[in-house]
Amino acid sequence: MINEKIETAHILIVNDIDETLNSLLPFYSKHNVRVIRNEEKEEFQLAQANVTIKEAYISTNEKKYIFLCGKIFRNEAQNSLLKILEEPPSNIVFIIITNSKSTILPTIFSRMPHKILKSGLKKEDLSLDVRKLDLKDVYEFLKQNQRIDKKESISFVESLLLKVNKENIELTQSELELFSKSIKLLNLNSRPINVLTTLLLTIINRKHRV
Questions:
Q1: Which of 48, 138, 140, 204 maximizes the CB count within 10 A of its CB?
Q2: Please, what is the average pLDDT of the chain?
Q3: Average pLDDT estimate for 94-116
Q4: Contacts of 81 (CB under 8 A, 6+ apart)
């Protein structure tokens, strides 16, 4: 939760986007704020980027704060926003709110100040359904988290193991050891996406054991 007004352009990495908005918005005048997000899914797409650009070029004599919210930011949406984020129109302040820095392109992340307000994954609330996990689920997860960092990956591995235990899913000794091995590999700076791919495919293969 944030207990102060953010006056300058920022990227906020948070656990809960709605909770963050609810804590921030009371610090601003309603007529000076725009919240742009995808109302149908948690993905900030090109359509939202186009709305953002149009809104930014509506002239104002006062500061206008434009909040861009999404669990996932599509690359094409970010690329279309790159120029306006680097050189915003007069009195326009962009504030990006998302759940993971891995969804923000390095070209944007390196140019905007950021605050990581995320306390870590809610491990018992991992969204993947490990009992029904299939290749499509794995593909979507890896696509959305292709730039996941070491810390987030370790937290995910821990979350996945907790979920497996909670669901009373039986794993072999070698499969259990893979969780420990995955964390060791991540701590040795192995590429996170490769480690997570191996781990998730192992969970899928477990379902096909006789």
A1: 48
A2: 87
A3: 89
A4: 49, 52, 53, 68, 108
Tokens in use for 161?
């193991």
Question: Which is nearest to 111 in space by CA: 69, 138, 82, 75?
Answer: 82
Q: Please tell me the distance from the alpha carbon of residue 35 to that of residue 67, in angstroms, as a whole number.
A: 5
When pLDDT is averaged across residues 56-79 and rounded to a whole number, the result is 94
Residues in the chain: 210
Among the listed residues 126, 148, 162, 125, the one whose alpha carbon sits nearest the alpha carbon of residue 197: 148
Task: Classify each residue of 166-197 as buried b or exposed e, where b means 16 or more C-beta atoms within 10 Å of its C-beta.
Answer: eeeeebeeebeebbeebbebbeeeeebeebbe
Enumerate residues 6+ apart whose C-beta is below 8 A from 70.
17, 37, 38, 42, 43, 44, 48, 98, 103
Alpha carbon 74 to chain centroid, angstroms: 11
User: If you average pLDDT over each of 16-20, 93-97, 138-142, 206-210, which comes out highest?
Assistant: 93-97
pLDDT digits (tens, 9 = 90+) for 121-170: 444 456 677 878 888 888 888 888 888 888 888 888 888 888 887 777 77
As given in the structure block, the two tokens for residue 182 are 């995955």
13 half-sphere exposure, CB direction, 13 A CA radius? 17
